[in-house]
Amino acid sequence: MQWSTLFQKELLENWRNKKWIWVPLVIILLSIMDPITNYYLPQIIESVGGMPDGTEITLPEFEPPEVVMMSLSQLSSLGVLIIVLLSMGSISGERKSGVSELVLVKPVSYSNYITSKWASLLLLVWISLFLGLLTSWYYTNILFGSLAFIDFLKVYFFYGLWLTFVVSLSILYNTLFKSAGLVAFFTILTIMVMSILTQIFKHIIEWSPNSLSDYILEMLTTDKMPTDLLATAGITIIISILVLLVSIQIFKTKELAN
Amino acid sequence: MTLLSVEKLTKKYGTKTIINEISFAFGHHKCIALIGPNGAGKTTTLRMLAGLLKPTEGSIQFESVARNKDIRHLIGYLPQYPSFHSWMTGKEFLVYSGRLANLSKEEATNRADSLLTEVGISKDAQTERISRYSGGMKQRLGIAQAIIHKPKLLILDEPVASLDPLGRREVLVLMEKLKQEMTILFSTHILNDADEISDELLLLNNGEIIESGSLQELRRKYQTAVIELSVEDDLKLYHEQITSIPVVSQTNIERDILYITATDIKTARENILAMATRENWPITRFSVNQASLEDMFMRVVNN
């Protein structure tokens, strides 16, 4: 009951500050940007003056799986950045402004406080991602060739897990720092370090959350469900939940005022 | 019956001791003022009681609640500079606060309605965003959110410091009323406010309680009286004569008033009046005043 009060407050807040409008729009934009510019590249080159006479370039023909990966690669860079910006003040901002003093003096359970924020961010992210990838899937079908709807759903689900992990990480740093800037910095730093480690120790770290995109590509190209993808998905879910639990523990030990 | 007893409460940041082993207790339906100069540790003490800060040492024992159990449902708290979700309306925020304190939706709404009227937030303002509220309105909304769940102890940090005289008066009247229903612990550095509504005083300085008790007790203990004298002609003519009275300890002319402090106020008064009658002084004013709370406060703090 208290949880739903907190959760509803988050939804209302995100509605009033227009996050429910701009986040889906930005995610849609990021998802379709690359597929569409790639498709229209010849026309774009033409209209900006074309190539010198005699130049022959053959633009690669893209297969639908590659097009989907274009969307994911945009989401993995700019999309992640947007999500970090979106969530960086979620708890730290309330602590900085002091409004958490009023909220947490009430008999509010700390885990309710944290998980309601986590859940509301996830809802926003998953719905935006759905709309983004759906648009991307639509254009892929029109412009590049057919991709089964079930494949789209699979891509959506597995990639959503990666963003879930990003949100959990941001919540963790939210409980550690009062400055939204630090939250953003450390979230991005962690993702970068993880990505580098995954690259370097590819043979050892097979199921890093950072590898989800690679396995999604494998799934699309081989048309089979790689066991590595399932394992990585499982690991990502477990790590996300662990990170969330640690956040709650950290928050309990934190002093809520200066 | 004690409502709350605090024992050897201590707060340290590193090696710096902010609050040093303070102990006090108080009962139901009391109004206690926590007084002290800036930096004395008033806010830190209140935050520890509200559960926002963890004491380094010592215990806070609430009546009928086991040690180390959550006491937040029994406490209402208003910080010195409250900040709200400014995108909410006043009423929304109150209902939200009530729901967080585990009231049902209906209870919370009813309670919010009656509190908004009680603290004097107009119907129009109730549905306006808090970002448009004035300082006084925010303060009143802050009190309303603190008592939405009918706490047994209401903690207010400098509730009137930021208000204009009118707002100050309103809040004091409100506190007077709330005293019937709950114990109020508030901090202030404005002694007249403390004088006006509190039953007991706790004087805090440098993280220690240096004096406590009812206002009357403290008055008796630290009382000094001052005689104020004005005359039609020049005060200097009489100044010397007055200083020659043995019990007079200090005199001081400010504008056209002569302030006289004495070790024995009764004898001093008799002497001066006798002198005045004998020599027919053109007195325009003669009064014996209690030393102001400020004087008392300064004395206690400086001791």
Quick take:
By secondary structure, chain A is mostly helical. Chain A has helices spanning 2-16, 19-39, 41-47, 64-87, 92-97, 99-104, 110-143, 149-176, 180-200, 212-222, 227-253. The radius of gyration of chain A is 21 Å and the shape is elongated.
The CATH superfamily name of the largest domain in chain B is: P-loop containing nucleotide triphosphate hydrolases
**Approximate strand percentage of chain A:** under 5%
Strand elements of chain A, count? 0
The parts of chain A where pLDDT drops under 50 for at least 5 residues are: none
Oligomeric form? heterodimer
Q: Compute the CA-based radius of gyration of chain A.
A: 21 Å
Radius of gyration over C-alpha positions of chain B, nearest whole angstrom:
24 Å
Q: What's the shape of chain B?
A: elongated
Helical proportion of chain A? over 70%
The stretches of 5 or more residues of chain B where confidence is low (pLDDT under 50) are none
Main sheet properties of chain B: 6 strands, mixed
Q: What's the β-strand tally of chain B?
A: 13
What is the global morphology of chain A?
elongated
**Estimated structural class of chain A:** mainly alpha
Distance between the terminal alpha carbons of chain A, to the nearest Å? 30 Å
Q: Could you spell the SSE succession of chain A in H and E letters? A: HHHHHHHHHHH
User: Taking all residues together, what is the mean pLDDT of chain A?
Assistant: 91
The helix tally of chain B amounts to 11
Organism (chain A): Ornithinibacillus xuwenensis
Pfam families (chain A): ABC2_membrane_2 (PF12679)
Protein name (chain A): ABC transporter permease subunit
Keywords (chain A): Membrane, Transmembrane, Transmembrane helix
